TrEMBL record:
Monomer. It comes from Paracoccus halophilus. GO terms for cellular component: cytosol. This is DNA polymerase IV. Its cofactor is Mg(2+).
């Protein structure tokens, strides 16, 4: 940063084990016990309580593996209508402090308080927001305060659960330098492995790389990595993010081994995607099929048109065409998904991004 740049005040608020905490709040018998929200027979863990996390149970983990790691694990069906209602309560609290709110999901959001401090510090406001969330919902939230989105999100993880952490501008680069590369938001496991293959283990290692090197090895993301290694992130908090895709998927109780059955299972997925696209007044140019086999291998296949998809039947036909060549596998199919992307933003109002139908138990 230069001395001429205005220092922003960004807060990242992240609810603590949100779905699981709601279930423990509403059912006293679950308090203090390892809890997983999701499908027990063929599903995945949507959220794990902190008691479950001590056994290594994590979100997106197959339920069978979670049970092996924690035999005492209690599974609870997700209640998304309840989670959404609580999320709206929380966002109403945010809106009393700033109009610049960028939700990332039901349980986390960025807030830009730069022009809305009213004589207070961002840290003081973050403390107040956390207290009000607890009072209104009985749940705890962690918050990170910093001068950009990247660091605010890192900060919110530092003292979980029920914590607050601040990274001031003068401490940003040093804080980043000390972190393992796997902790960086925007650096997934595959990218982290590629970086480690080049000897990049920490933020300090990343900062030693030239922009040319990072661009050559990581493409368009190279400039992003070069900046965050120095504590630089110029992304704005954008309340009206453009939704890039609409998707639905389902995990099945038994692996599907018959193509006709698999094609039939695409119908409700297409119905759900088209319903939500129509409700938003939008269509897309790319249809992507997701297939997960019984041995957990996963593939995607996509087809793009020169125009928006015109109907639910056309989307279903594309997905069906994509499925037929990849269906045959000795392990069967445990999950199918359809996503429509390249949405036409001019067709209607946008809606917050949301993946539909993630779990096998409705």
């Amino acid at each position: 940063m230069t001395g001429k740049e205005r220092i922003r005040r960004i807060v990242h608020v992240d609810m603590d084990a949100f779905y699981a905490s709601v279930e423990q709040r509403d059912n006293p018998d679950l308090r203090g016990r390892p809890v997983a929200v999701g499908g027990i027979r063929r599903g995945v863990v949507a959220a794990a309580s902190y008691e479950a996390r001590r056994f290594g149970v994590r979100s997106a983990m197959p339920s069978a593996r979670a049970l092996r790691q924690c035999p005492a694990l209690v599974f609870v069906k997700p209640r998304f209508e309840v989670y959404r209602a609580i999320s709206q309560q929380i966002r109403a609290i945010f809106a009393e402090y700033t109009p610049l709110i960028e939700p990332l999901s039901l349980d986390e959001a960025y807030l830009d308080l730069t022009d809305y401090l009213a004589g207070r510090t961002a840290t003081r406001i973050a403390q107040e927001i956390r207290a009000r969330i607890r009072q209104a919902t009985g749940l705890t939230a962690s918050a990170g305060v910093s001068y950009n989105k990247f660091l605010a999100k890192l900060a919110s993880d530092q003292r979980k659960p029920d914590g607050l952490f601040v990274i001031p501008p003068e401490a940003g680069p040093e804080f980043v330098a000390s972190l393992p590369i796997g902790r960086f938001h925007g650096v997934g496991p595959a990218t982290a492995a590629r970086m480690q293959a080049h000897g990049i283990q920490t933020g300090a290692d990343l900062a030693r790389q030239s922009l040319d090197f990072l661009t050559a090895h990581f493409g368009k993301s190279g400039s992003y990595y070069w900046n965050i290694a120095r504590g630089i992130d110029t992304r704005e908090v954008t309340p009206d993010r453009i939704r890039k895709s609409i998707g639905a998927e389902n995990t099945y109780f038994q692996d599907i081994r018959d193509l006709g059955q698999a094609l039939a299972e695409l119908v409700p997925l297409a119905d759900k995607v088209w319903h939500h696209a129509s409700h938003a007044g939008r269509s897309g140019r790319t249809v992507t099929l997701k297939v997960k086999y019984g041995d957990f291998r996963q593939i995607t296949r996509a087809r793009s048109l020169s125009r928006p998809v015109e109907s639910r039947d056309e989307m279903l036909a594309i997905a069906s065409d994509l499925l037929a060549p990849v269906f045959a596998d000795p392990h069967g199919v445990r999950l199918l998904g359809i996503t429509m992307s390249g949405l036409d933003a001019a067709a209607g109002e946008d809606a917050p991004p949301r993946q539909l139908g993630l779990f096998d138990d409705p």
